[in-house]
Amino acid sequence: MAKSFAEVLEERVVVLDGAMGTSVQARHLNADDFGGTALEGCNEYLVISRPDVVADIHAAFLKAGCDGIETNTFGAGRVVLAEYGLADRAYEVNRRAAEIALQVARDFSTPD
């Protein structure tokens, strides 16, 4: 039977991923990657415009030995997304971010 997260924490240090924003910046993306000039810099929207980039960043953290990853949703609340005219898409962005992270995590999951 698989152990719960809390049980694993009692046994060892669990390593989580690093800064998504820094990882995105290292990709040197352009306005087109974000979905246009108006959306440039909205890292959270990459789950819609470039889900492959987000998945690749998650995978890189897991390849480096992380035990878990977080979603690309740091600024995915309605207030921040409103700065890009995306407030009404907050649920969609958050859901897609969770789907991408879950799929990548599944791809790397092992019984250990």
Summarize the structure.
With 112 residues, the chain is mostly helical. 52% of the residues lie in helices and 0% in strands.
Strand content bin: under 5%
Poorly predicted runs of 5 or more residues = none
In total, the number of strands is 0
Summarize the biggest pleated sheet.
Answer: none
Mean pLDDT: 95
Q: Helix proportion of residues, in percent?
A: 40-55%
- What's the end-to-end separation, in Å? 11 Å
CA radius of gyration: 15 Å
Q: Enumerate how many helices there are, as a single number.
A: 7
Structural class: mainly alpha
Morphology: elongated
Order of H and E elements: HHHHHHH
Descriptive keywords:
112 residues; mainly alpha; elongated
How would you characterize the overall build of this protein?
This protein has 112 residues and is mostly helical. It has helices at 5-11, 20-25, 31-34, 46-49, 51-63, 78-82, 90-108. The longest helix has 19 residues, at 90-108. It is elongated, with a radius of gyration of 15 Å. The protein starts with a helix and ends with a helix. The model has no long low-confidence stretch (mean pLDDT 95).
Topology (elements, then pairings):
Elements: H1 5-11, H2 20-25, H3 31-34, H4 46-49, H5 51-63, H6 78-82, H7 90-108
